[in-house]
């Protein structure tokens, strides 16, 4: 009889239920199959879902059981050994789907009677969330378990659990929708149905991908746990797709319709419940990693092929267990298998460094130049390339199972993690100690953040973080905060994707219909008006819509288009060379380079770098080259100032840091200069405050004020000025 549902307990054990009333247990490694239990003859199973394995590394007592829904209107809670713990009358007509939430605190069931019901862990009815006239075929929980997504004919509906909250509903397909899935890591929704198409949506119901129509209705789909891949099943069809929708592979197995797809916990294989009574197993192979002149492909589950394109050398890497995740960057290949982690140097493929893993399933590997980060269900672990555990940062409400490359970022000295409980917050840690950075307060933005990235080079106290918020605006800010509130500055709008360069602090992004490179993002803290002059922009229409930046290594940017093809772009090598000169204070070389290249953008970068590093001579040359004469004059006037302190203060003023300039002058005892600065900026109140506080030059302030008012033909209205004017003769 047809197999209706399948579900994995561990990475190597699968349960399946079929219309012949049997529950079978499969082990794909040893190819053993055993019958667990035969259900009563009137129970026809429809859907199966295992109780979640435990959140945040905590094992749960009930984890060894599953819910099975059946055609007689009941759902059954069944233990791993096949004992039916409880059967509950749930719906009139068949119960078409049942799903535990991520914490395992609630169960949602949907049925032919059009009802959506929420049950407690023990099977008591908590509430009826929705009632409608058509059967509900599929249901999914939101990542935070606070909303439920379900089907209603051709519509998709997202309904929050709390009453009176806004319900989101949209027409998703031209035919009946048969299956949905909502991923907790990337927050994307899949739907498929009788119009023979599958679609990808974001959680606001905006369509991101719409497939071509298939020959037959699509009967199943499922996200892999980490949200990078999903699988689609139809009649004699199994398809593997990227999260953006394009298809990696299409298989035509002889299965009949595939009614359910279930991914194993480590995301390396999936199982399908087939209409002809078979259970189909499939493994993901041929993943591909590239870095500089190396191409690495997973050719079998435990074998990688390394191809060096410079000399055509090929190496085969064999592993004891199957490969789960890998990452290639900064001259190292890091591979995690089900039990161990391997670190290969690209200089020598024969002697990897191997260490054992505690938890097992690694869900993410991130690399920086000096160390790498492993993320698993239990926590974040930072290792050196010698295999030594450096630190394991913790933060309140930590959920590591939902982190991905967009929400975690690593550099040589800093680790940044986006909070899940409050999406406006970024936690920032010192990499070497694992402690929160600076005063321990996280970075907080005014709207929800979707993607974060740390720059990779330069000094620790100049570390910058770039992030994109929900409105697709790009911001940059300093990671180190010395008590004072650092400015978060907006540097781009409608940004789809971003990446920092691996060898110099150059940022690239795709904004709206342009590909943009910020050659020196730090300009915003030095001379904001100069920023547009330090950009490189290129029309991005050739990348079609929703392109993603894969990597930015050296002066090559790799972009993946929406159809899955890779496009390589080259940017000018000169800004990186300039960054290199400036980091070693070789200003003459910098100027010589700019004169050789004769490019305004490069001169603008040099000007900003010179001001940032307080090198006035170079700044003067660079500003003159881009024709900013007013700034050249101001820099000249600074050079003629008598004392070092006042020169420093005017440099700060040049960058727009008035507060710091004033503080510096007062500390150096240059009170009159501090007052004069405020007068020049028309900060009258502050000038008077300083004069009164230091009991000096009150008459000067009043005189300037009087002259100012006379020039504009105005009368004095400010009480404080009137009060002091009485007692002082000017």
UniProtKB/TrEMBL annotation:
Domain IFT80/172/WDR35 TPR, residue spans: 602-730
GO cellular component, one term: intraciliary transport particle B
Predominant location: cytoplasm
IFT80 second beta-propeller domain: residues covered: 286-574
InterPro entries given in the database record: Beta-prop_IFT80_2nd (IPR056456), TPR_IFT80_172_dom (IPR056157), WD40/YVTN_repeat-like_dom_sf (IPR015943), WD40_repeat_dom_sf (IPR036322), WD40_rpt (IPR001680)
Localization annotation: Cytoplasm, Cytoskeleton, Cilium axoneme; Cytoplasm, Cytoskeleton, Cilium basal body
GO biological process: cilium assembly
Start-end of each WD repeat: 88-120, 170-202
Described purpose of this protein according to its UniProt entry: Component of the intraflagellar transport (IFT) complex B, which is essential for the development and maintenance of motile and sensory cilia.
Protein name: Intraflagellar transport protein 80 homolog
Organism: Dicrurus megarhynchus
High-level lineage: Eukaryota, Metazoa, Chordata, Craniata, Vertebrata
């Amino acid at each position: 009889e047809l197999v209706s549902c399948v579900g994995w307990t561990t990475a190597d054990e699968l349960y399946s239920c079929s219309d012949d009333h049997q529950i079978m247990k499969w082990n794909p490694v040893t190819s053993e199959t055993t019958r667990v239990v035969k259900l009563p003859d009137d129970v026809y199973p429809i859907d199966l879902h295992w109780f979640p394995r435990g959140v945040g590394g905590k094992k749960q007592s009930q984890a060894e059981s599953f819910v099975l829904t059946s055609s007689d209107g009941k759902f059954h809670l069944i233990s791993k050994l096949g004992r039916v713990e409880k059967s509950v009358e749930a719906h009139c007509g068949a119960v078409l789907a049942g799903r535990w939430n991520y914490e395992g605190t609630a169960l949602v069931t949907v049925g032919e009677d059009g009802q959506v019901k929420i049950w407690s862990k023990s099977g008591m009815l908590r509430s009826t969330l929705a009632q409608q006239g058509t059967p509900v075929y599929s249901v999914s929980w939101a990542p935070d378990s606070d909303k439920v997504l379900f089907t209603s004919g051709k519509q998709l509906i997202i309904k929050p659990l709390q009453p009176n909250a806004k319900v989101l509903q949209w027409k998703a397909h031209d035919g009946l929708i048969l299956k949905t899935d909502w991923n907790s890591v990337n927050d994307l929704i899949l739907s498929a149905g009788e119009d023979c198409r599958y679609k990808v949506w974001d959680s606001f119901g905006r369509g991101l991908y719409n497939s071509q129509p298939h020959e037959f209705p699509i009967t199943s789909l499922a996200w892999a746990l980490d949200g990078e891949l999903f699988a689609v099943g139809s009649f004699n069809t199994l398809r593997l797709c990227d999260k953006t929708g394009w298809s990696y592979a299409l298989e035509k197995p002889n299965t009949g319709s595939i009614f359910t797809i279930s991914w194993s916990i480590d995301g390396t294989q999936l199982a399908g419940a087939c209409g002809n009574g078979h259970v189909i197993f499939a493994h993901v192979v041929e993943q591909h990693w590239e870095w500089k002149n190396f191409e690495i492909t997973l050719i079998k589950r435990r074998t990688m092929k390394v191809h060096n394109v410079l000399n055509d050398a090929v190496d085969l890497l064999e592993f004891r267990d199957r490969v789960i995740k890998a990452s290639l960057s900064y001259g190292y290949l890091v591979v995690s298998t089900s039990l161990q982690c391997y670190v290969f140097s690209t200089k020598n493929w024969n002697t990897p460094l191997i260490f054992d893993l505690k938890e097992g399933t690694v869900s993410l590997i991130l690399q920086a130049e000096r160390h790498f980060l492993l993320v698993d269900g239990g926590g974040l672990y930072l290792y050196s390339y010698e295999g030594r555990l450096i630190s394991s940062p913790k933060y309140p409400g930590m959920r590591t199972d939902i982190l991905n490359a967009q929400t975690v970022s690593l550099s040589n000295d800093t680790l940044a993690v986006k909070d899940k409980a409050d999406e406006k917050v970024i936690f920032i840690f010192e990499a070497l100690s694992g402690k929160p950075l600076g005063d321990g307060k996280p970075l907080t933005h005014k709207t929800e953040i979707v993607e974060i990235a740390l720059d990779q080079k330069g000094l620790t106290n100049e570390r910058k973080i770039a992030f994109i918020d929900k409105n697709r605006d790009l911001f940059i800010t300093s990671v180190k905060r010395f008590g004072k509130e650092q400015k978060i500055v907006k540097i781009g709008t409608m940004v789809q994707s971003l990446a920092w360069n691996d060898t110099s602090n150059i940022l690239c992004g795709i904004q709206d219909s342009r590909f943009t490179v910020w050659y020196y993002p730090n300009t915003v803290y030095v001379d904001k008006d100069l920023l547009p002059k330090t950009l490189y922009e290129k029309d991005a229409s050739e990348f079609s819509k929703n392109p993603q930046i894969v990597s930015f290594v050296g002066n090559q940017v790799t972009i993946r288009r929406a159809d899955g093809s890779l496009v390589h772009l080259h940017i000018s090598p000169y800004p990186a060379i300039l960054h290199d000169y400036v980091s070693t204070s070789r200003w003459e070389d910098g100027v010589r380079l700019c004169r050789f290249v004769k490019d305004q953008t490069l001169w603008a970068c040099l000007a900003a770098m010179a001001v940032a590093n307080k090198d006035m001579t170079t700044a003067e040359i660079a500003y003159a080259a881009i024709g900013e004469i007013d700034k050249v004059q101001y820099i000249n006037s600074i050079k003629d100032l008598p004392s070092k302190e006042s020169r420093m203060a005017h440099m700060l003023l040049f960058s727009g840091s008035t507060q710091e300039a004033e503080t510096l002058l007062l500390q150096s005892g240059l009170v009159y200069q501090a007052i004069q600065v405020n007068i020049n900026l028309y900060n009258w109140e502050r000038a008077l405050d300083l004069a009164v506080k230091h009991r000096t030059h009150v008459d000067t302030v009043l005189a300037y004020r009087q002259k100012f008012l006379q020039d504009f033909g105005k009368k004095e209205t400010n009480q404080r000025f009137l009060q002091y004017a009485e007692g002082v003769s000017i």
